[in-house]
Amino acid sequence: MQGMSSFMAAHHTIGRFSFRAALLTAFCALLAAAPARAGDVVVVTAAQMVDVVDGRIVHDPQITITDGRISAIDTRGAPVPEGARRVDLADLTLLPGLIDMHVHLTHDPRLDSGYHAYEFTDNFWTVVGVANAKRTLEAGFTTVRNVGSENYDDVALKQAIEKGIITGPRIVPATYAIGATGGHCDVTELPPSLVAPAPAVADGPDAIRAVVRKLHKYGAEVIKFCGTGGVLSKGDTVGGQQYSLAEMKALVDEAHMLGLRVAVHAHGTAGIKDALRAGVDTIEHASLADDEAFALAREHGAYFSMDIYDDDYILAEGQKNGMFPESLAKERDVGRRQRETFRAATRAGVKMIFGTDGGVYPNGDNARQFATMVFWGMTPLQAIRAATVTAAEALGRSQDVGAIAVGRYGDLIAVAGNPLDDVGVLQKVRVVIKGGTVVKN
Ligand code: ARG
Description:
The protein has helices spanning 2-11, 14-33, 109-112, 124-138, 153-162, 205-217, 245-257, 269-278, 291-300, 310-321, 325-347, 368-375, 380-386, 389-395, and strands at 41-45, 48-51, 56-59, 61-66, 69-75, 85-88, 93-96, 98-103, 141-146, 170-173, 222-226, 261-266, 282-285, 303-305, 351-353, 412-415, 431-434, 437-440. The protein is α/β, with parallel strands linked by helices and 441 residues long. A 6-stranded mixed beta sheet has the order 3-2-7-16-17-18, with no helix packed on it. The chain has a 5-stranded parallel beta sheet with strand order 11-12-13-14-15, with helices on both faces. The chain has a 4-stranded mixed beta sheet with strand order 5-4-1-6, with no helix packed on it. Strand 9, helix 5 (153-162) and strand 10 form a beta-alpha-beta unit. It binds arginine (ARG). Arginine is lined by residues 230-232, 285, 307, 310-311, 314, 331, 334-335, 338, 357, 360.
């Protein structure tokens, strides 16, 4: 709820409010109409729990999950409803399921770097997404925002997960990432005679609005666009702006009118600032943000999602994976600067969310970034909040995910040790529970 109100204050989005209010009314009507039934009750106990809201360790928690949502939080030994299933995690530490705000489940750098992507048929990547969805969930990430895929693959994955056909996290799909002709979100590595389909390449405010409407129509729940150049693309510069302020404004206004938040791929200083002025909700990468950008982010209530582990992976594996040499050169230039910006943004009080760009380094290894975030200036608690309570707020999903709290989904993970002392323990998640169902033990 807090997320929603800060979003509203920042954007004065009347359309979004009535859309949500309508949803809520519909949901309440559904609840009222549902026949009363005994309910599926699971009671989870553990030695301790990280309370990410209050920022402290709670001893001997007992969490009751009824029909997939948390219905009570007590201390071990409290009465247990009759017929409840028991999951005792002995000496482990509970946390809320983690959230990665920037993944590409259908990507794998060992398969799609440089020109290698063209060795495979189109639907190969959907299959890669199925495997990555499972790996990601088993790594403790019970919710992800997928900010760019082809063929509406992320919508397909989400539907298959919700129908129980495959296992994976809750997905907030962006479908295609929108971008300018020749920009980071276009296909720029082919000669003019080879035309790749580009259903989300658009230039000018009207064409961009039409693409936003189309992606919304086919299942996008967040809009992603490329505001500046990037590392992995050919023929552009990392810092160069690729949409004008007018184009960004049209995109953001259209998305907000439809009740969708907006994530922008933006490394470059000028592009980051124009995106913030246009009202985007999250800045992805944010590598070259300066003090003025930090101030704009604070003023607009926007979040930074900075993929600061990627530099290690790219420099170690990029060449072997067949990455374009120019991408490696761009990484060498921007990697460290991005980390310094991360430290400065954290100090400046910008709201930070956990986003790895999973797919740039292998999906399933998402939690590696926690230690990098701590090395570059966060406390373990700040890093964990970025992947839980703050991420949920940035999604506008604080009623569902991001904390162990009554009413939210029963999405829990368990680790050995205290992650507030050593955030590295998050790389070895022992138990994953999604909606009250143990999916990894
Ligand atoms: N998708 C991003 C891009 O191509 C990856 C950037 C990775 N490098 C980094 N230092 N974060 O621009």
